[in-house]
Design goal:
This protein has eight helices and eight strands, in the order ββαβαβαβααβαβααβ. With 233 residues, the protein is of the alpha/beta class. The protein has one domain: Alpha-Beta Barrel (TIM Barrel). It has an eight-stranded mixed β-sheet with strand order 1-2-3-4-5-6-7-8. Helix 3 packs parallel to helix 5 and helix 6 runs parallel beside helix 8. The chain starts with 6 loop residues before the first strand and ends with a strand. The model has no long low-confidence stretch (mean pLDDT 96). Bound molecules: iron/sulfur cluster. Iron/sulfur cluster binds next to loops.
Length: 233
């Protein structure tokens, strides 16, 4: 009998979590990081309250064959759970494509699941240096591990995108230029900027959160440096 996967919730239909696919999204519990811009804080802890039952979700997936294309394992951080591969395989066996959203904190686990994935959304939290990256994820230094996963992903030849949440408390416009240059040098082709939505209690003005998206020079630089670049507001 396989270990029980810990899931905080599910989105049964999404067109935005796996490019060009109609997908169901599983939000897994557990994340070792504490990004100040996190909107999934309830998922950071494993064992939080949830009424999710995998068997019911599996029945739902059986009934949606031919309607949905894919299942995305999101979080939290899916790589936290050791049993992830078993559930990816179960979903694959039903005929679904499998995608994953990750920050790549655990490369030795990523290496095991990567061959089963069709697409990965890889979070880039800050310019690629340990000091800034550690600050951006709430003081936890797993920068080298995240970079090992990113390099593994690039080398794998799998379809993937990199994306950055533009929290002005963590990143400046200049930082986005740095990230872009560093990703391009690694061979990343698809990059997205996501608008930061103020978390509860944060009084950062909208104008600060919007500045990345109103900077025409930055946007044009990103467009010219990636095969695909877009913003998600
Ligand atoms: S990695 Fe994602 S789930 Fe984890 S703290 Fe950061 S934003 Fe939240």
């Amino acid at each position: 009998m396989k270990e029980k996967i810990k899931v905080g919730g599910v989105e049964t239909f999404s067109t935005v979590d796996f490019p060009n696919q109609m997908a169901a999204v599983v939000f897994m519990q557990g994340c070792p990081w504490r990004c100040p811009f996190c909107h999934n804080q309830a998922l950071q802890k494993i064992g939080g309250e949830t009424d999710f039952i995998w068997e019911k979700f599996a029945e739902f997936l059986q009934s949606r064959k031919g309607i949905l294309d894919a299942v995305v394992f999101s979080g939290g951080e899916p790589l936290v759970q050791d049993c992830l591969l078993d559930y990816i395989k179960e979903v694959k066996a039903m005929g679904y494509k499998v995608g994953m959203h990750t920050g790549g904190y655990r490369p030795e686990h990523f290496e095991k699941v990567l061959p089963e994935l069709v697409w990965v959304g890889f979070d880039i939290k800050a310019p690629l240096n340990a000091e800034h990256y550690t600050r951006a994820v709430g003081g936890i230094n797993q920068f080298d591990k995240a970079m090992q996963s990113l390099d593994m992903l690039i080398k794998s030849g799998k379809a993937f995108e990199c994306r950055t949440t533009c929290d002005p408390r963590v990143l400046s416009v200049e930082d986005i230029y740095k990230i872009a240059d560093e990703l391009k040098a690694k061979g990343v082709k698809e990059y997205y900027l996501q608008r930061y939505r103020q978390v509860e209690g944060d009084t950062t003005p909208d104008s600060e959160c919007d500045k990345f998206f109103e900077d025409k020079e930055l946007l044009s630089y990103l467009k010219s440096n990636f095969e695909t670049f877009d913003i998600r507001k």
